[in-house]
Design goal:
The complex is a heterotetramer of chains A (380), B (323), C (307) and D (253). In chain A, helix 2 runs parallel beside helix 11 and helix 5 packs across helix 6. By secondary structure, chain A is an alpha/beta fold. Helix content of chain A is 42%, strand content 21%. Chain A is globular and about 60 Å long. The longest helix of chain A is centred in the first third of the chain and has 20 residues. In chain D, strand 7, helix 6 and strand 8 form a beta-alpha-beta unit. Chain D has 2 domains: 166 residues, Rossmann fold (3-Layer(aba) Sandwich); 79 residues, no CATH class. Chain D is built from 9 helices and 10 strands. Chain D is 36% helix and 23% strand. Chain D is of the alpha/beta class and 253 residues long. Classes of the chains: A alpha/beta (380), B mainly alpha (323), C mainly alpha (307), D alpha/beta (253). Chains A and C meet through helix 2, strand 7, helix 7, helix 8 and helix 9 of A and helix 1, helix 4, helix 10 and helix 11 of C.
């Protein structure tokens, strides 16, 4: 009897002790991201940024399993099912693309898993269909476009705006127009995956616009910027930050010089956290981090910070810790809105060549503590 | 019993036993994986009817797979929200109704696509079916009402009378039974007068016409039947993933369906089952091994075409028997 | 709409058509001579672009890169022919589809393994930078005019090669009768390898030329591959002349459709919706054109007599 | 031959077909009367194949008419002409090679019954197909080879199977394209005998190179040279015709 009590007490002490150490409960993270095909660059940066934060945390109880979704929604769903049902992960993360995210998140949260988005942030999950278990550490898809709309209002009277013909493209132009008060010369939607923009550039030249806003992610943006530079058209081009992020800038080359973009972060940010992030990333991977790497880095920081305080097995407590966003983000101000999307500052950046490398230079702040248009519909 | 029948029975039993065992061991994921195999096998079985029996190399069957998927997604979305679709027609979350709609829609579309495509043959047929599927693909990507490129979520799996479909094993059993029924149907058609005419038209079109059987009508019928089976699989796939998107309509999907058929054995009754099982197993096993898993997959597929003629069933059950 | 804009769009359509022709010519030549349907043609286009980008980055010369793209794509094509394609000539189209589908996976991931996951940089050579004045006030990039010129040169070159040379005579013989040519004492295996390498070199050339205006990245060959299939099917598979006209038709239809359809639809709908609907319709346009052509002429506009 | 003046079963009138500048069929007029064997002969390249293609519908004539039992079939598809009673064999055997001999004939029986849209009843257990097909195979002496794939039959057997398939169609007119080709002496003799009886079932348009068979069997012979019929008549008349002798038979006589 006595023996029994002693043992129980010892066990209790032990468990108290470990919970005092805070990260004794193992935390397993499932990362689904794009590591093959044309979009692999974004997934690689996402993975690398995320793993950097995990490594820096020194938390040995966190394990990350990573799998390639090949940018196919069905495969992403299959991997998510496997990670949830077989690998028993606690948190999912890493998906780059909105359409893959829309495939995975509703099912994952229905099974009680947390999802922390490192990039994709479709409007559909930010408003009435927001979810307690779904966090976005990047932005809401519209944010960067809204910022460019705000910026363009000040300097441009007549804008030519262009995006691919798919939901993120429509959200983009809608977001831009939400804040742009000038005249829209033309609103053009191009085929997804289109690689030749000669016809659109000719329209731009003829439109009489004094500014151009384009949202063309990945290879589409590279193709557009090169062709635009080659065309000799001299109208200023602007776009959301990821159009000129570090993963695409080397491929665009000097054609990107001078392009204005909006971003919640740029590599030249003058704060300690940002400098540390950039130098750690460069030391680890021998290249400049892109915005995707930053977003994943912060997502990992968030998970690490929550894991340091409570066990993921207690979902409510863990969620509350995530929501507090107790991290030092390289982007500066960072907190969560009621719909669990960021409230953050958004800046204007410009592509410059610095030490022989193309990069983004911060020009000015466009928005302070900017949330999104959908939070009001979210009842959490 | 022929060796092929034995292999077939083994495959059927294994596909049932594996998820039952996994379920008993609490490994729900393997039930999901088996469901995926059953559904892809059903889709490939549909293609096998056109391709294996009729020699119609459709490079556009993703169109029908996706149409089935969207039928499920759209009906479920409206069934869930209670808003009518068109002209006051309501949506539904009942699987049997969804299946009927999927099959009917695919039949209509296949009739149109087939009527034009079957005027051509050989490479032209391959290319024109591809082009039609691309047309449907781009339509789905740029059509905003149902999510476009982002796709459409089926928030709660659709219902089947008397069964809780959210239980993975139940949903697997639904798919498995449908697969077996489709296999039986395939066997019947293959042995029937229609099947005889279809297979004869594949081997010698002029001969078939010369005895007074118009190959066009036979092929069009086969094409439509084939599309409906693939569409039914698409509807189930949407329910499995609780999601449907244009990627179900992409040309990669069409290619994958062809891969499944060839991998298993063209025209073989259980070829699609063997092909789907192998493909899903590869995807699953290689995906967690290396970032370059598609490279390995490519090598395996190439090796199969070059050295294992007749697919898996050709390898294990010998040459196809013809009566 | 001004005259200058219309002219510029027409040139754009022409240039896209020429680009498609460079790709489609190789594809249709290979089909015409060997009866082979090659889905991996887009991969050779990608090989050309990567070779050009890598060599241009290393040497600083676009022209050396261009030479490298021809050489690498031809070499890759020859190796693929010797190792894989050769075994597929007497197979049906189904096996060819699957094998070359597998080759796409191998090429894409192999390239990513060699060059990494990020797009490469490739710019147009200084000589061809800038734009020229068009009559009516528009401007047009010199590089795109150069592409049109190169396309025209290749078309003439192919015409001379096939119509006037010994190799061309053999190619024509191979097109009209595959058994016969062996009997004529032509080494058919070498001929096939040469034709495949030639087709691959054309794909590589167009990859390099396009790579300078687009993103040199894994998977870049796939969208254009499908366009090329549309081109050769419209033109009549196996016909170089058909490929040329099909390419111009597709190039001009696609460009003018993107340009004009949204404007037409804007007459009926508010601008934002017109943009979307117009975008949707124009992205389907060339497939509609193809279906129409095949509904009337099931074997394309210029079907070779023997196929 | 009481009904010599009866309505022809097959009547071809002023048929013309050009390939570019080449006139392959040059105003051919030809008929096939009940109960007769009408042989069509001519040197290689005379346009016999082109003519047959037009009769069967695999080529479309430029002008002229083709009537079968009084109905104009000149615009119908191959399959429609077959359904209306045109039974054709091929110069080079054209069979469903993976199917057994039996199934090849069964397919023709099924075509005759117009039941190709049956989806459920297995053909191999269907006596309404097997019995008539076996009967025909027996008639041609092929019953013992019924279960062999067509591809594994001997050349002669394949020629016979061609005829068996055509018999199963119970056509109004037979169109036999060189049935004797490559048959050997014995085979030719047996086939000649068989065809001699066959004319009672339906008249035969016989394209043949084997002159012995032609002159033994034919009630009438037409000679096609350079796409034109240069003579039509009985075997004796044709043998004596000077134009035929110079154009065609001369070197053999």
């Amino acid at each position: 009897m006595q023996m029994h009590k002693m043992l129980a007490a010892a066990t209790m002490a032990l468990s108290l002790g470990t919970s005092g150490l805070a990260h004794a409960d193992p935390l397993k993270i499932g990362m689904i991201t794009t590591l093959s095909g044309g979009g692999a660059g974004l997934g690689v940066d996402t993975r690398d940024g995320f793993m950097l934060a995990i490594k820096n945390s020194g938390n040995k109880d966190i394990t990350v399993v990573t799998e390639d979704d090949a940018q196919k929604p069905e495969l992403a769903v299959q991997i998510a099912d496997k990670m949830i049902q077989s690998d028993q992960v606690d948190v999912l993360t890493g998906i780059v693309w909105s359409n893959l995210l829309m495939a995975v998140v509703p099912g994952a949260v229905a099974q009680g898993k947390l999802y922390v988005s490192t990039n994709a942030a479709p409007a559909a999950l930010a408003g009435a269909n927001c979810n307690k278990l779904y966090f976005n550490a990047a932005y809401q898809n519209d944010n960067l476009h809204e910022a460019m709309g705000e910026y363009a209002t000040k300097g441009y009277k007549k804008m030519f705006i262009l995006a691919p013909n798919y939901p993120a493209g429509k959200d983009s132009l809608t977001g831009f127009k939400r804040y742009y008060k000038g005249e829209v010369a033309a609103e053009v939607y191009t085929k997804v995956g289109q690689t030749d923009y000669a016809a659109e550039i000719a329209q731009m030249r003829a439109s009489g616009a004094d500014g151009i806003f384009v949202f063309l992610p990945g290879g589409m943006g590279i193709a557009f910027m090169k062709q635009f530079a080659q065309s000799g058209v001299k109208i200023p081009v602007m776009g959301p930050g990821f159009s000129f992020s570090q993963d695409v800038l080397p491929a665009i080359g000097d054609a990107a010089l001078g392009a204005k973009a909006s971003g919640q972060w740029a590599p030249d940010f003058d704060n300690a956290a940002s400098k540390k992030f950039v130098s750690d990333f460069q030391a680890e991977y021998k290249r400049l981090p892109s915005i995707y790497a930053l977003q994943a880095y912060d997502a990992a920081q968030l998970v690490v910070s929550a894991a340091a305080k409570t066990s993921v097995k207690n979902t409510d407590a863990f969620r509350a810790e995530l929501l507090r966003a107790d991290i030092t983000s390289p982007r500066g101000n960072f907190k969560f809105n009621t719909n669990q999307h960021p409230i953050q500052d958004i800046y204007l950046t410009e592509v410059v060549r610095k030490d022989g490398v193309l990069t983004n230079k911060t020009v000015e702040k466009i928005f302070t503590d900017h949330g999104d248009a959908y939070a009001k519909d979210c009842k959490l | 019993m022929t060796r092929e029948n034995l292999v077939n029975i083994l495959l059927a039993v294994a596909l049932l036993a594996a998820p039952l065992a996994a379920n008993a061991l609490g490994q729900a994921f393997y039930v999901t994986l088996a469901t995926r195999i059953a559904i892809l096998a059903l889709a490939a079985l549909g293609l096998n009817l056109a391709l294996g029996l009729g020699g119609l190399v459709s490079f556009g069957h993703a169109a029908f797979f996706g149409i089935g998927g969207y039928a499920a997604g759209i009906l479920a979305a409206h069934g869930f929200s209670g808003e009518p679709i068109l002209f006051g027609l309501p949506g539904t979350v009942q699987m049997p109704v969804i299946w009927l709609v999927a099959v009917f829609t695919a039949a209509v579309v296949a009739l149109l696509i087939g009527a034009i495509s079957l005027r051509t043959s050989g490479v032209y047929f391959i290319m024109i079916t591809l082009a039609f599927a691309q047309m449907v693909y781009y339509f789905a990507v740029s059509w905003p009402a149902y999510g476009g490129e982002d796709g459409l979520s089926v928030l709660v799996r659709n219902q089947f009378p008397g069964l809780n479909t959210m239980v993975p094993l139940n949903f697997f059993l639904i798919c498995y039974v449908i697969l077996l029924v489709a296999i039986a149907l395939f066997a019947l058609i293959r042995a029937s007068r229609f099947g005889a005419a279809l297979q004869a038209a594949r081997q010698n079109e002029i001969r078939v016409a010369t005895i007074g059987i118009g190959p066009f009508r036979i092929r069009l019928t086969a094409f439509v039947l084939s599309a409906t089976i693939t569409a039914l699989a698409g509807a189930l796939y949407a329910d499995l993933n609780r999601f449907v998107s244009p990627s179900m309509l992409s040309w990669h999907m069409s290619g994958e369906l062809i891969v499944l058929v060839i991998l298993g054995g063209v025209g073989r009754l259980f070829g699609p089952v063997a092909g789907a099982a192998l493909y899903v197993a590869f995807e699953f096993a290689l995906g967690s091994l290396t970032e370059y898993w598609q490279f390995v997959l490519g090598l395996i597929l190439l090796g199969t075409v070059l050295f294992v003629r007749g697919g898996l069933l050709g390898l294990f059950a010998g040459k196809a028997r013809h009566g | 709409m001004t005259f200058a804009l219309a002219l510029e769009q027409l040139l754009n359509g022409l240039q896209l058509g020429v680009m498609l022709f460079l790709m489609a010519a190789g594809l249709t030549l290979i089909f015409g001579v060997m009866g082979l349907i090659n889905l991996a043609h887009g991969s050779l286009y990608m090989v050309g672009a990567f070779a050009c980008a890598a060599v241009a980055a290393w040497t600083g010369s676009f022209w050396l890169g261009l030479a490298a793209s021809l050489a690498c794509a031809a070499a890759a094509g020859a190796v693929v022919e010797l190792v894989v394609i050769r075994r597929l000539y007497d197979r049906d189209h189904l096996d060819q589809v699957l094998a070359t589908f597998a080759l796409i996976l191998i090429f894409s991931e192999g390239t990513r393994w060699l060059f990494g996951s990020f797009p490469l940089y490739l710019d147009i050579p200084p000589l061809l930078q800038g734009a020229v004045q068009l009559p009516g006030g528009g401007e047009y990039p010199i590089y795109r005019l150069a592409i049109i010129a190169i396309g025209a040169l290749v078309a003439v070159g192919l015409y001379v090669l096939i119509g006037r040379t010994r190799l061309g005579m053999r190619i024509r013989a191979g097109e009209s009768d595959r058994e016969m040519i062996g009997a004529l004492g032509v080494d058919i295996r070498t001929l096939y390898t040469v034709v495949f390498a030639l087709g691959s070199a054309l794909a590589g050339l167009s990859g390099a030329l396009v790579g300078a205006t687009q993103s040199v990245q894994v998977g870049m060959g796939e969208p254009i591959l499908i366009l090329c299939f549309v081109v050769i099917v419209i033109g009549g598979i196996g016909s170089i002349k058909g490929a040329l006209l099909g390419a111009l038709l597709v190039g001009i239809c696609d460009t003018m459709g993107r340009f004009l359809l949204p404007q037409l639809i804007a007459l009926l709908l508010p601008p934002a919706q017109a943009g979307m609907v117009g975008g949707a319709v124009s992205s389907m346009l060339i497939y509609v054109v193809m279906a129409l052509v095949l509904a009337v002429k099931p074997r394309g506009l210029f079907p070779p007599a023997h196929v | 031959m009481d009904k010599v003046m009866a309505e022809p079963v097959l009547q071809i009138n002023e048929l013309v077909k050009n390939f570019g500048a080449l006139r392959a069929t040059d105003g051919v007029t030809l008929d096939l009367r009940p109960g007769e064997i009408h042989a069509l002969i001519g040197p290689n390249g005379a346009g016999k194949s082109t003519l047959i293609h037009q009769i069967c519908g695999t080529l479309r004539q430029d002008s002229g008419t083709i009537r079968l039992a009084g109905v104009d079939i000149g615009a119908l598809s191959t399959a429609d002409r077959a359904r209306r009673g045109l039974g054709r064999t091929f110069q080079v055997s054209s069979l469903v090679s993976e199917f057994s001999a039996l199934r090849n004939v069964m397919l023709a029986v099924q075509a005759k019954q117009a039941t190709s849209f049956g989806f459920f009843r297995p053909v191999m257990r269907d006596v309404s197909l097997i019995e008539p097909a076996m009967a025909i195979l027996e008639r041609l002496g092929l019953a013992h080879r019924a279960r062999l794939p067509a591809a594994e039959l001997s050349h002669g057997e394949r020629r016979q199977l061609e005829i068996a398939i055509t018999l199963a169609l119970q056509p109004k007119a037979f169109l036999l394209d060189e049935p004797m080709a490559g048959m050997g002496l014995e085979g030719s003799k047996a086939l000649t005998l068989f065809l001699d009886g066959l004319r009672q079932e339906a008249p035969i348009l016989l394209v043949e190179h084997d002159m012995d068979a032609v002159f033994t069997l034919a009630d009438r012979v037409s000679v096609l040279v350079y796409g034109r019929i240069i003579a039509t008549g009985t075997a004796g008349e044709i043998r004596r015709d000077p134009a035929v002798r110079t154009a065609y038979l001369g070197d053999r006589a």
